[in-house]
């Protein structure tokens, strides 16, 4: 069973990039299966600090890296990303893109941003404004979508852009103006030249690796609480983000899965709108944000910060079918004078659909403990301060699954098992 799935167990920004960067050392292939450049995975390694939006983290270790069909690919930003990697000397020969990934077009971005701007207060999603929702809408609509496969033939690609541009510009005028067609055409035709050499039949590669029993890491973006079906709808992203989605988008059988790793932070953050029972309003939240550098890696927006929410984490690990957990940023939360952990919601024994629908009005119950200051350089779990170990034990007791990876700082080497 050679497949490992790594997926976020909160509302994103759990430190998945760091965990996948470490895990990719043992993988032969790393696959990015959904989302677009609404996500940013920060990786710090021998190449420096890089925020990856689309390219799988395995690129730094010269693994085969696949951008699968569930991804929404924005060609101009993708080109900027690979140029940045190239400048750092990261080899890109192993990068592969599915024929079936969908393209984010300028009209998707205009619609996404225009809708957010004109949305009534209380009705906004707080999207990243990267056009991801409208791109997936067109994918499901099946008449105005453009896929990577459409790039192969230059004339066909240009005609398709031209045709849909005119249909969209008439419809979207109340959301904002599209860039001029010449500009769009130039940017996308230029991107086409650079993207086409990476396009290949990714299923054939995956099939071959499965047959040879080589290791495949499926690297998730966003997180299960942002999943369009299992998350806090409508304040979610527009793709499926869980472990079952990893299989759906790649076509891999559940029988092939060995590990499902949920990634969670020792506290919680979320960007955009939506319920957040353990959110900290005021000074302590600001402190946590500063200590953890909790600003969106895609948009720079300040992230809302809150305490670790064990009931939601249990729900997340159940829906993810997580077999183990990675816990990140213990070094950050330890700097708080007092730390709270939510162990339940008043009067609720288990989060079900009704509690989920009323997440906003849940009353969290907390236990409190003292922070431990600096974490130092622990070499194993037993080296961690007592309260840090207490949090890890609580996570394990509450979710019923082991914490197998504890991140103790941003560097690749900073973790204990
Ligand atoms: P969209 O994915 O840009 O449509 O945004 C929908 C919601 O998902 C918003 O609340 C975003 O802030 C959130 N979101 C999307 N991607 C990420 C991510 O990578 N980390 C955290 N939140 C995200």
Spatially, the strands of the biggest sheet line up as 9-7-5-2-10-1-11-14-17-18
> Could you list the spans in which at least 5 consecutive residues all have pLDDT below 50?
none
Report the strand count: 18
Heterogens: inosinic acid
Structural class: alpha/beta
Whole-angstrom Rg: 21 Å
- What does the overall shape look like? globular
- Which bin fits the share of residues in helices? 25-40%
Biggest beta sheet summary: 10 strands, mixed
Q: Please tell me the overall pLDDT.
A: 94
Strand fraction equals: 15-25%
Q: How many helical stretches?
A: 13
Structure description:
The chain is α/β, with parallel strands linked by helices and 417 residues long. 33% of the residues lie in helices and 20% in strands. It has helices spanning 16-23, 75-87, 106-118, 132-141, 154-171, 181-195, 202-211, 243-250, 283-291, 310-320, 330-333, 353-357, 386-399; strands spanning 3-8, 29-32, 41-45, 48-52, 64-67, 72-73, 95-98, 102-103, 199-200, 216-219, 257-265, 267-270, 304-309, 324-328, 338-345, 364-370, 403-407, 415-416. α2 crosses α6 (181-195), α3 crosses α4 (132-141) and α10 packs across α13 (386-399). The two termini are 22 Å apart. Bound molecules: inosinic acid. Inosinic acid (IMP) binds next to α4.
């Amino acid at each position: 069973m050679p497949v490992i799935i790594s997926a976020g167990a909160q509302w994103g920004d759990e430190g998945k990039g760091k965990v996948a960067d470490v895990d990719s050392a043992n993988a032969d292939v790393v696959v990015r299966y959904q989302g677009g450049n609404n996500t940013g995975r920060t990786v710090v390694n021998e190449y420096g600090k890089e925020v990856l939006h689309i390219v799988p983290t395995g690129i730094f270790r010269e693994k085969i890296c696949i951008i699968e069909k569930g991804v929404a690919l924005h060609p101009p930003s993708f080109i900027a990303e690979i140029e940045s990697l190239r400048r750092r000397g990261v080899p890109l020969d192993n990068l592969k893109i599915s024929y079936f990934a969908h393209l984010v077009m300028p009209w998707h971005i205009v619609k996404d941003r225009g809708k957010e701007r004109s949305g009534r207060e209380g009705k906004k999603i707080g999207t990243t404004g990267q056009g991801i929702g409208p791109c997936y809408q067109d994918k499901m609509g099946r008449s105005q979508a453009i896929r990577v496969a459409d790039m192969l033939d230059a004339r066909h690609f240009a005609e398709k852009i031209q045709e849909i541009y005119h249909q969209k510009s008439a419809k979207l005028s109340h959301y904002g103006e599209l860039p001029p067609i010449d500009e769009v055409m130039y940017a996308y035709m230029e991107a086409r030249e650079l993207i086409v050499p990476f396009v290949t039949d990714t299923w054939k590669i995956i099939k071959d690796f499965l047959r040879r029993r080589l290791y495949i890491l499926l690297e998730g973006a966003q997180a299960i609480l942002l999943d369009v079906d299992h998350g806090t709808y409508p304040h979610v992203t527009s793709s499926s983000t869980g472990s079952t989605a990893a299989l759906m988008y790649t076509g891999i059988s559940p029988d092939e899965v060995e590990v499902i790793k949920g990634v969670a932070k020792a506290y919680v953050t979320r960007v955009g709108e939506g319920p957040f029972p353990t959110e900290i309003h005021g000074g302590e939240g600001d402190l946590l944000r500063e200590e953890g550098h909790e600003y969106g890696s895609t948009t720079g927006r300040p992230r809302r910060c809150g305490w670790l929410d064990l009931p939601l984490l249990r729900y997340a690990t159940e829906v993810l079918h997580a077999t183990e957990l990675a816990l990140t940023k213990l070094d950050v939360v330890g700097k708080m004078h007092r730390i709270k952990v939510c162990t339940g919601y008043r009067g609720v024994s288990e989060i079900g659909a009704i509690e989920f629908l009323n997440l906003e009005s849940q009353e969290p119950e907390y236990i409190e403990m003292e922070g431990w200051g600096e974490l130092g350089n622990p070499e194993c779990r037993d080296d961690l301060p007592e309260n840090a170990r207490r949090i890890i034990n609580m996570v394990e007791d509450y979710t019923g699954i082991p914490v197998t990876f504890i991140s103790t700082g941003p560097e690749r080497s900073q973790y204990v098992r």
